[in-house]
Amino acid sequence: MKPVQWLCALVALNFVWVTDLFVLGRGFERLGEPGGLLTAVGRLTGLYGALALVVQLVLVARLPWLETRLGMDRLTAWHRWTGFWVLWLVLAHLVFVTLGYAAQDGSHVLGELDTLVFDTEDVGLATIAAVLLVVVGVTSARGARRRMRYESWHAVHLLVYLAVLLGFLHQVGLGEDFTSSPAGRLYWWALYGCALGAVATSRVGLPVLRNLRHRLRVVSVVRESPDVVTIWVGGRDLHRLPARAGQFFLWRFGRRWWEAHPFSLSAMPDGRFLRITVKALGDGSAWLQYVRPGTRVFAEGPYGAFTGARATRRAVLLVAGGVGVTPIRALMEEFAHARADIVVVYRAGAPQEVVLADELRTIARRCGARLHLVVGPRGAPGLQGLSTLVPDARHRDVYVCGPPGMTGAVRDTLRRLGVPDDQVHTERFAFAA
Q1: What's the order of all strands across the beta sheet hosting 228-234?
Q2: CA–CA separation, 267 vs 280, rounded Å?
């Protein structure tokens, strides 16, 4: 089974377990009473919301087994999609339970809501958790997200962990799976424990351990153009760091340690140095233009499935757009070491936007690769242009990295050229944007 199938099967199995525990706990026992159906639906949506929240935590835990096979961009997209399901299920839980209790007590809905929130033990905690989830959901909407700095959005997003804690306390205090079912109690403790343990291990423990071991620092800074620099990072025992060409790290530099920036490696790791090439596109990357040698570095990763491990053929086509050439340059170096048949198409809007062209030419001469620099005001290489440059594209694994618009256009072109989707590999490195 593929990783996606394993993940879907695991989620489905837990969905069945949650439903089974609800039924065994006599969740449908009171259907004949006033408000019984509404209350049952409310309880069930609350349990499904809790399960979706656990799934969301696992997706963002950055577990190496999942992340290196599925890619951070895909896991992040699923995490976002699951988050909205969490929000709707929690709100449905609140609405149906309130309606059910109001029907049971014969009271007004607003009065019943007031009683539940302010006079019922542990429901106040759940209300705070629901409010926090709403805040996180609203700020995660695309329109709101574009108007916020990443650091501000990330700080708000951390409220999810507080919501998880408050929701769990609510479930422990009032959930019948806890109060009346030893099996349910064991299941939910194990489920929350595994999810939070995965987050603590992969998001905190592993990065701290690796940085204590490797003690990364900036070794040198090389200016490639007026707005592009290459930063060399050194440390101890870097040969023990499981990084590959095409992957990226979340980088934190010196006195601005709280700012994490996803930059892909621009050279194949050699066990001595890690190298990134950064273009000034925002406040953080602009500041890195002036970082000094000796600056302490904290790197979280490596992340990404955009690696040579996905190749199924000896022949490869590497397509880069703008600063997306950085992982493509690293992959070109790795494929050159593997003596692959390499074609590189590098698209830039203007001559001053071309980055690392001399290095690409050097690697191409050394391994006999074909390098095409396509410079001009147009967007991605068109159908006719790409078919002319690489007439055997359908017989190659294709790696594409660049702006989203270009990446989408190249994928459409490759599809029209008959290249199977499983031979086309892409990944969004700026997943936080």
Answers
A1: 217-225, 228-234, 273-279
A2: 19
Q: pLDDT digit string (tens) for 233-288?
A: 999 999 999 999 999 999 999 888 888 888 999 999 999 999 999 987 766 677 88
Q: What CATH number labels 308-426?
A: 3.40.50.80
Burial category of 374 from C-beta neighbours within 10 Å (exposed 0-12, middle 13-18, buried 19 and up) = middle
Give the span between the Cα atoms of 222 and 229, in whole angstroms: 6
For 54, phi and psi rounded to 5 degrees? -65, -45
- For the entire predicted model, the pTM comes to 0.83
CATH topology of domain 213-303: Elongation Factor Tu (Ef-tu); domain 3 (2.40.30)
| Cα–Cα dist 78/59, whole Å | 7
Alpha carbon of residue 167 to chain centroid: 24
User: For 338-389, where are the alpha helices, taking DSSP H only?
Assistant: 357-367, 383-389
At 198-212, the pLDDT tens digits run 999 999 999 999 999
Residue 174's Cβ-count burial label (10 Å; 0-12, 13-18, 19+) is middle
Q: Which residues contact 187 (CB under 8 A, 6 or more apart)?
A: 17, 21, 177
Could you identify the residue written with the tokens 């980088």?
251
Q: How far apart are CA 433 and CA 424, in angstroms?
A: 23
The distance from CA 219 to its chain's CA centroid, rounded to whole angstroms, is 29
* Rounded Cα gap, residues 257 and 288, in angstroms: 12
Closest by CA to 139, choosing from 130, 148, 151, 131, is 148
Q: How far apart are CA 418 and CA 394, in angstroms?
A: 6
